[in-house]
Design a protein that fits this description.
single chain; alpha+beta; Phosphorylase Kinase, domain 1; 2 domains; five-stranded antiparallel β-sheet; 8 helices; 32% helix
Amino acid sequence: MTTIPNTEFDDLSLVRQGKVRDIFDTADSLLMVTTDRLSAFDVVLPDTIPDKGKVLNQISVFWFKQMEDIVKNHIITTNVDKYPAEFKKYREALDKRSMLVKKAQPLEVECIVRGYISGSGWSSYQKDGHVCGIPLPNGLKESDKLTTPLFTPSTKAEIGDHDINISFEETINILGKEKAEKLRDLSLAIYNKGAQLALEKGIIIADTKFEFGMLDNEIILIDEILTPDSSRFWPLSDYEPGRGQKSFDKQTVRDWLTASGWDKKHPGPKLPAEIIENTSNTYKEIYTRLTGEHV
């Protein structure tokens, strides 16, 4: 398992540390803090990306609000002044990069939606003619838009491990038919709305993943939503099927890591300053394009 550096809030009750997010417990809620950590190929890298956490958190807040007509979410407030007393002394550190959320029970499946054929989906299609067991027509080119977005769930992995793609039938075995179908339908609805809104801002959301939880016997949206960490963003102006696309996310880091010859195992290599700066600027540009605001 990958070791992550200790959080800066050592006197608070840390209940979970993910690749990017730290979660702290309160009496009846959780505080989710989005850090500047960066993971690639399921490994947390030694360098951080300035302001990345603020960008991710604010993008999620933006999208959670956009999707409230489709599904409820876990946000209570993002106003630090309304946080429990023990967090207020960290106001400056928490501002724009945190949210107070409801305590939901996470469901054991990650909900991936693919609107375009790229990445591992393209590799699978080239080899077997399908993506995650779903057969596709012959003759597709890399980065082609799919006629209908695909729901391709996976199991959640521990930090440092890789998620495993599963079939919809396996999803039913894990969650039951009703929940599995509900997650599929919600995931596709959220993706379709988000993809259309982003397209109007000049961004293609090629694929993404969502996480859901149960609260009071109801499925709600949790974690993050349609961020550069959970999605593959392409600039519409540069889109051309038949090749890999310029990416509005951490693809610059992935490309550099691949070219470096790294074996994709912990620990990851140090990143050049130029890669760090370019990645930070890319995250900020996505936020500004989507919201019209600056971090």
